[in-house]
Amino acid sequence: MTEIGAFEAKTQFSRLLDRAKNGEAFTITHRGVPIARLGPVSQGPDVAKVREVLARLRRHARDHGGAPISTDDILEWKAADQR
Q1: Largest separation between any pair of C-alpha atoms in the chain
Q2: DSSP H or E segment with residue 36
Q3: Residue 15 reports pLDDT greater than 70
Q4: Is the overall model pTM greater than 0.90, yes or no?
Q5: Which residue has the higher pLDDT, 82 or 75?
Q6: pLDDT for position 82
Q7: Which of 12, 35, 38, 41 is the 20 to 30 A CA-CA neighbour of 54?
Q8: What is the total count of domains within the chain?
Q9: pLDDT, tens digit, for every residue of 65-77?
Q10: 9 with 28: CB under 8 angstroms?
């Protein structure tokens, strides 16, 4: 992680944000002491994918009388998604 002084971080903030958006991370220092980090924010869950998985779980429960989902079921779904 790149270290950058607070003054430089202040004067180059827009550029640092662009670099962080592209995945780079920085430690901001004040008089050589690390005080903060600037970096990309991890992405949240894919809402469409979550809804698809929930729908699949509901269908499985309905079609199998509420039977538990097996490891084989999950592996089968995963393999189907990779095709």
Answers
A1: 65
A2: strand 33-38
A3: yes
A4: no
A5: 75
A6: 66
A7: 41
A8: 2
A9: 887 888 888 888 8
A10: yes
Q: What is the CA radius of gyration of the chain?
A: 23
Integer Cα distance of 36 and 39 in angstroms: 10
Inside any domain, residue 43:
no
Place of tokens 């699949």: 56
Q: Do residues 69 and 44 touch, judged by C-beta distance below 8 A?
A: no
Unique residue bearing structure tokens 């979550």: 50
Q: Which residues of 38-53 are buried (b: 16+ CB within 10 A; e: fewer)?
A: beeeeeeeeeeeeeee
Give the residue numbers spanning the domain of 70. 48-82
* Residues near 75 by beta carbon (within 8 Å), at least 6 away in sequence: none
Neighbours of 28 (CB within 10 A): 18
